[in-house]
Structures are given as structure tokens and as C-alpha cells.
Amino acid sequence: MTKILVIAEHLDGKLNPSTARAVSAAAAVKPEAIDVLVLADNADAIAAEAAKIEGVTRVLTANRTENAHALAAVLAPQVAKAAAGYSHVFAPSTTFGKDLGPRVAALLGVPQVSDVMTVEGSHTFKRPVYAGNAIVTVEADPALPVVATIRTASWPAAAIGANSAPVEALGLDVALPSHTRFVELKQGKSDRPDLQSASKVVSGGRGVGSKENFEIIYKFADRIGAAVGASRAAVDAGYVPNEMQVGQTGKIIAPELYMAIGISGAIQHLTGIKDAGTIVAINKDAEAPIFEVADIGLVGDLFKIIPELESAL
Amino acid sequence: MKILVGYKRVVDYNVRIQVKPDGTGVVTEGVKLSANPFDDIALEEALRLREKGVAEEVVIVGIGPADLTAHLRNGLAMGANRAIHVTTAEAIQPLTAARTFLKLVEKEQPGLVILGKQAIDDDANQTGQMLAALWDRPQATFASKVEIAEGKATVTREVDAGLETIEAELPAVITTDLRLNEPRFIKLPDIMKAKSKPIEVIEFASLGVEAGGHLKTTHYAAPPKRSKGVMVNDAAELVATLKQKGLL
């Protein structure tokens, strides 16, 4: 029997869009049921949102004060217990899912399939290795539960609105460790669209030159309603905070339009944007590797080109 | 305190990987191999903790074939006190790696295990979390800052929303992110000194690591190629092209 448990990601009482993407991947397995598990200190509002996701059979809640912050050591034993009777446990391949998934898998004594790109069968998946330079087909043992993280950039979010799945409180009688404690979260507050779900992204690299110069990227992004990303070089140089990094070790994104400005295009960066609809590269170096993957390229000085773009809009 | 550091050898991050035409793997013959970049960061952090007096001993662990010795010598030259080489000709998946580390943890009783957040070959990002689960100890993944005091680690983690700080009672498992530190370069005299540092060789089979729970990799493929792009001459042409595609 194929039944999938999807672990909901949420922050500040709001469901993260990555959850609906994981539900899409679950639906591709064609299971008999897709249940979403919300672990929180107050799951009600989040569960109500999850219940609207198309394809969701039930929403299960685990309300505990210990679940106020997503600590893998605290959540994993609960997920492992809730996983009984399910053939698959899916979590989004975000920092939340990457932290939690392997801990759950180890408690269940099974391997994890990381970053599922496509579902080939109930136990066969494709995933990227070597910074996305090879795609492997992996088969999990059909006799064991499958724990997988879902590469969010590979899956559209399941529609939200039409469904109204029942919400049930789950009594998970599990002793929780106190050896790991939350201290604080410093969020980069931004009114701009979320990098991982935006349809347009403008990214800047080392070529932007300084933190102050990055204003030109923000201004242009705001003009076209885009989220702002960055290369590792720009983050390391301190131009922007780390959560804006796009690439193998940062965020993997798939916007309809990706504009790489002053980014040379290292392998590790290209991994993060391979699934973008249209890639635009603006760089003064005509030999930059970014032009090998760009759909539209423009060679020139970004400080001259961006103002020209703004006036052409 | 003793710190155990995972030190994996991978295809160098600058190599452009080629998938074998028959789909059985990627070409690794004659390809440059290096320490996994995240493991260099893990080792650097352990060395800094030793230099601060937090730890007395740094032990690197490699799991792999007989010729892993040269790789482990690099870690010793960087500053590790000694190395443990678990020998096996098999490719080890994260769950098996975690089970192997657990055996070494039981043997060595470290106060801290530092691993890279992911290896740049399998990109799994699992071993540290799995070890922490099997060991039933805290995990602090994607660390960009580590402070050890009074029996606990205060770790800043790079999460999607920003920077999260957690406290983890020791012993614990920490996995490193890119911005934790800048690994030091190996100096020539240290390479000579490393030759006399001990490498303990342990047969994988002798550890009694629980078997099972493997994924079967049935096929390797090159990623789909993007179609050839076009070059435009100026900003006006770029805007016109994007408008034509309905993107602006």
C-alpha cells in the first residue's frame, strides 16, 4: 500500500510554499493517500492552509511547546513515530528538510533519497550528483519505507484553494531530548518576492563590486518585480547576506526569468539555476562561462547597461 | 576533548565531470582528486578549537581504498594529530558512513564530531544528521560560527530564512558550511612532519557495521543541455526580446 507522509515546513505561523511542491512530488508517486504532518506549538492556522492543498488526503497535527522551533533532534523522533504505516516520508529539500530528513531516515534504519528531481516509479527516482553535472537513477528497497527530500525547483507547487482535507490531531507519545535548544533566528527582512518561489530573479556577482553598488541590482529588481539573488563571490565579499546565495551550496531556484549580472558562472553557481526558464547574462567578459548557458547574452558594463535597461522599460 | 573529523576524498571541485557514455558512472580515471571542500573547513575548525585550548586532539577519519593514505597525509600535514583509515573497496553510502562513524565514536569517545555539510560528489547532505540520530546526540548542521564553552556548543547555522543560533550539549555533531572559516594552506615542512604521524588502518569488515539499507544506482546521465542562446547588442534589444517572450 502506497501512503505518503509529507512533512510541512512553516515559519511564523505560515506554511512555506515548499510544502506544496513536496505534495506535487508525492502525487507523482500515485499513492492511495497523501497526509501532511504539521509539527508546531500551535499548528491550527498552518494546518488550515495545508488542508487546502490539492491532493492532500488528511492533515495531521502534532502540537507541542517543544515544536515551537524546527529543531531536527526534537522533530525527528516524532516524525519517525508518525511514519508507521506509511510507505514514503517526503520533506522539501530546503535547509529545514535537509536537516530533518536524514535524522528521520537513520531512526528508521533506511537510506535517504536526497533532492528528488523526478519520480520514475514508486521506488525509483532521479536526483542530481556532482553539482548537477550528472543525474542518477536510484532505486530504493521496496521492502523498506522511503525517506526522500524533494528538490523544490523541480516541482511546481500543488494548487491551493479547492481542497478541504480533514485536520486530525495526532497523539505522538514520544520522549523528546532537551540536549538541543533554540536561541535565536536573525532573518534578513525583505519586502521583495521570496527568492525560492519568485518567477523573476535578478542576481549580482563579484562584478557588482561593493555592497553600495548592489543598490543598483535591488533598484532594477524592484522595477521589474523580481527577487534578488547573488553568487557565492558576492556573499563572501560581504555585498549581501548568505541567504541570498544561489548555487550548489545555496538555494536552487527555477524562476521563469533569471538575470545574472556581473556573474562569471562557476559550475557551482550554474547548478542553482539550471532549471530556470530563460537565463539572461550581462557581463563585460565575453568569454565568461555564464554565456554558455545563457539564452540571451549581452556583453558590456553593467553600470552602463542597467540604467539603459531601466529607461528602455 | 578529542575531536573527530570526517575527511572524504572527492573529485576536485574545479573538474568538469564527464558521464560515461554507457551510463555506468562518471569518468574518474586520471581525474584530479582532492579533499571535499567542506571537510577542509571541518578540519580547519577542529584545528582552531585545538589552538584555542578547547580540544587536545584532532583525529581525521577517511573511509576508502588503500590509496587513501596520501589524502590522509594531507590532513595530517594541515595539522591533525592522527588519522584513522577505514579500508574498503566498496563505495560507502551515507547511512553506512554514519554507522561506521558511530563505531569509531564508541571506540574514541570524542567530545565533538565535525563533518562537512555535504560531499560535492554525491551531494547527499546526510551523514552528519544520520550519525547524530544513531548516536542520539545533538546536531548542528550548516554551521557558520561555532563557540564551545561550559560543555555546550553555541552554533550559528545558515538556514534559508537567515542565521539561526542553537545550543547543543556536548558531545554533538556539527556539519560545516562554507563561511565557517578559511582553511589554511599546507606548508612544505608540515608535509615532512606528517610522514611520522600515525595512521591507524582498520578493516571495514572488522568493525561489524550493520549492513543493509542501500540505494541502488542504476543509471548515470548527463543533464539535459540547454539550447544555444542568442547575443543581443544593447539594452534596448534585450528589453524588446524579453517583452516579446512575455517575460517583462
From TrEMBL, chain A:
Domain spans labelled Electron transfer flavoprotein alpha/beta-subunit N-terminal: 4-186
InterPro entries hit by this protein: DHS-like_NAD/FAD-binding_dom, ETF_a/b_N, ETF_a/FixB, ETF_alpha_N, ETF_asu_C, ETF_asu_C_CS, Rossmann-like_a/b/a_fold
Keywords in alphabetical order: Electron transport, FAD, Flavoprotein, Transport
Annotated spans, Disordered: 187-206
Pfam families associated with the record: ETF (PF01012), ETF_alpha (PF00766)
PANTHER family membership: ELECTRON TRANSFER FLAVOPROTEIN ALPHA, ELECTRON TRANSFER FLAVOPROTEIN SUBUNIT ALPHA, MITOCHONDRIAL
Recorded family membership: Belongs to the ETF alpha-subunit/FixB family.
Protein name (database record): FAD-binding protein
From TrEMBL, chain B:
Source organism superkingdom: Bacteria
Similarity field: Belongs to the ETF beta-subunit/FixA family.
Residue ranges occupied by any Electron transfer flavoprotein alpha/beta-subunit N-terminal domain in the UniProt entry: 23-211
Keyword terms, alphabetized: Electron transport, Transport
Gene3D superfamilies: HUPs (3.40.50.620)
One Pfam entry name: ETF
SMART domains on file: ETF
Annotated protein name in UniProt: Electron transfer flavoprotein subunit beta
